[in-house]
Design brief:
Blueprint lengths: L23 E2 L6 E2 L12 E5 L7 E9 L5 E8 L10 E7 L7 E7 L2 E8 L2 E7 L4 E8 L16 E9 L6 E3 L2 E8 L12 E8 L11 E2 L17 E8 L5 E7 L8 E7 L6 E2 L6 E3 L9 E4 L4 E6 L17 E7 L6 E8 L7 E10 L2 E9 L15 E7 L18
Antiparallel strand pairs: 1-2, 2-3, 3-27, 4-5, 5-6, 6-7, 8-9, 9-10, 10-11, 11-13, 12-13, 13-14, 14-15, 16-17, 17-18, 18-19, 18-20, 21-22, 22-23, 23-24, 25-26, 26-27
C-alpha cells in the first residue's frame, strides 16, 4: 500500500493512507508494539512501534535499511531516565516483508544507542554508541537482523572505548574504497548545551573487517568556537557523511544557531584519506531550512540532486523555539549542498507542543522515498509527553518524489 499524501484542511496534518496499527503489551506491561490484538487511533503512516508516555520511556533514533530481498529493516532505541535504560539502553529491530504494511520485532539489542543500519558485503550492520556518551559500537547480522554479534572488545565491534561519543542515525556511505560515518564526541567542555560536541569522521577500508577497531581511522576533532557567526554559534552535532559534486568527502552537520528565524547547516571538509578535518567559518555555514534539528542527506544519482527531509519552520511558527518546532516535515533538494530548495510539505500538524515528526531516516526505492520518523502524536493514552519525547516510530512513503509538487492548500506554509 502506498501512503499517499492527501490535503485535508488548512491547519490539519497530512494523512498518508493510514494503517490502524495493532498492538500488544510487552512483558513489562509498558511497551506497545504491533500485532493483531488491538487498535490505535489513526496516526500518519504505519506504526512500527509505540510506547505510551505513562511508561516514561520514549522512542528515538529511527533508522531504515532495504535488504537485497527487498524487505525492510527498521531500528529504534528507547530513551528514559529510568534504570536500567541510562547505563544499558535498548535498541529494537523490526522487519517488514510486505513493503512496510506491517512490522514485526525480530531483535532486542542491549547496550546499543543512537544507531544507523547499513548493508555491506552481504551483511547487515548497525553502528552507534553503547549509551549516551559511551563507546562506539558496531554489530553485524548475517540473517537479516534476527541475530547479531556481541561487541565485547576491539576485535568484536567495540570500535572506540573510554570516551564520550555521540552520533545519530545518519548515512554510512562508501566512497573511494572506504566506509564513512560522521560522529561526535562530548569532550569539548563548556557549560551550555552544544558546546561540548566535537565533530569528526571515522572511516575504514571497504574490504576490512569492520568489527575490528584497528580497521577504523578517526580524523581530528572540530569543536565549538565562540567567535563563529558573530558569537551566535551554539555548536554542531549529528553530522552526515556526504560526497560533494567534486568528489570530496564532507561532514554536513546540524547547527545550533537561531537568529531572526534563520537556520544553518555546517560543512566540515574531510581529507581524502580520512585523517584531517578542517573548517572555514567564512564559507562553511550554509542556509538550510530546519538546520537546527537533526536531518539526513542522500545523493540521488537519477536526478543528480541531494535530498533531505527536514523540520523546516513555516513563518506562522517562527515566534517560538525553532529547535523544538518539529511539527512540519519538508522535502528539500540541492544541486550542490550549498543552495537548498523546499520541494513541498510532507507532514504537518498545527500543534507545536506535543506533536512532532523528527529524526527522519530515509532511503530511495525506485521512484519513491521511504522513511521512518520519531513521531509524537495522539494515541488514546494521553498522547506524547512533548514534541521531543516521542511515543511512536512511524513508516511513510513519498511516491514519485522527484516530481513532488506541494499541494495548493499548503502553499501558505512555504516561504514567501
Amino acid at each position: 500500500m502506498y501512503h499517499i499524501i492527501k490535503p485535508i484542511t488548512r491547519l490539519a496534518f497530512i494523512f498518508a493512507i493510514v494503517v490502524l496499527a495493532a498492538c500488544t503489551k510487552d512483558h513489562d506491561g509498558m511497551m506497545v508494539e504491533n500485532d493483531s490484538t488491538c487498535k490505535m487511533q489513526a496516526v500518519p503512516g504505519t506504526v512500527v512501534a509505540h510506547s505510551p508516555q505513562s511508561s516514561q520511556i520514549y522512542l528515538g533514533s529511527p533508522s531504515i535499511c532495504v535488504l537485497p530481498d527487498s524487505n525492510y529493516v527498521v531500528s529504534c532505541d528507547l530513551n528514559s531516565t529510568l534504570a536500567p535504560y541510562v547505563d544499558s539502553p535498548v535498541t529494537w529491530v523490526f522487519l517488514s516483508e510486505n513493503k512496510g504494511k506491517t512490522w514485526n520485532k525480530i531483535a532486542t539489542l542491549q547496550g546499543q544507542f543512537w544507531s544507523q543500519l547499513f548493508y555491506h558485503h552481504d551483511a547487515l550492520y548497525i553502528m552507534g554508541t553503547s549509551k549516551s556518551g559511551g563507546d562506539i559500537l558496531i554489530r553485524k547480522s548475517g540473517d537479516g537482523g534476527h541475530t547479531w554479534t556481541n561487541p565485547v572488545d576491539g576485535e568484536t565491534g567495540r570500535i572506540r572505548q573510554n570516551g564520550k561519543y555521540h552520533c545519530a542515525p545518519t548515512p554510512v556511505i562508501s566512497h573511494n574504497g572506504r566506509i564513512w560515518r560522521a560522529m561526535e564526541d562530548l569532550m569539548g567542555g563548556g557549560t551550555v548545551w552544544g558546546q561540548a560536541f566535537r565533530a569528526f569522521m571515522i572511516s575504514a577500508p571497504e574490504n576490512s573487517d569492520l568489527l575490528k577497531a584497528s580497521s577504523w581511522l578517526q580524523s581530528n576533532r572540530m569543536g565549538y568556537n565562540s567567535t563563529y557567526l558573530g558569537g551566535d554559534f551554539g555548536g554542531w552535532l549529528e553530522g552526515n557523511a556526504v560526497v560533494t559534486p567534486s568528489g570530496d568527502m564532507v561532514d554536513v552537520l546540524r547547527t545550533n544557531y537561531q537568529v531572526n528565524g534563520d537556520e544553518l547547516a555546517s560543512i566540515i571538509k574531510i581529507s581524502s584519506d580520512g585523517a584531517t578535518a578542517s573548517f572555514d567559518p567564512q564559507t562553511g555555514f550554509v542556509p538550510f531550512p530546519g538546520g537546527c534539528k537533526k536531518f539526513a542527506i542522500l545523493h540521488d544519482p537519477v536526478s543528480n540532486l541531494y535530498w533531505s527531509i527536514s523540520n523546516y519552520v513555516p513563518d506562522v511558527y517562527k515566534n517560538g523555539n525553532a529547535e523544538r518546532t518539529r511539527n512540519t516535515l519538508a522535502l528539500l533538494s540541492s544541486p550542490d549542498l550549498l543552495h537548498w530548495n523546499i520541494q513541498g510539505i510532507v507532514l504537518t500538524h498545527h500543534d507545536v507542543l506535543t506533536h512532532g515528526f523528527q529524526y527522519v531516516d530515509f532511503k530511495f526505492e525506485g521512484p519513491d522515498i521511504i522513511f521512518v520518523s520519531r513521531t509524537a502524536f495522539d494515541d488514546g493514552e494521553g498522547g506524547a509527553n512533548s514534541q521531543h519525547n516521542a511515543n511512536f516510530i512511524t513508516f511513510h512513503r513519498i511516491p514519485y518524489f522527484r516530481n513532488y509538487a506541494n499541494p495548493a492548500i499548503w502553499q501558505w506554509l512555504l516561504p514567501h
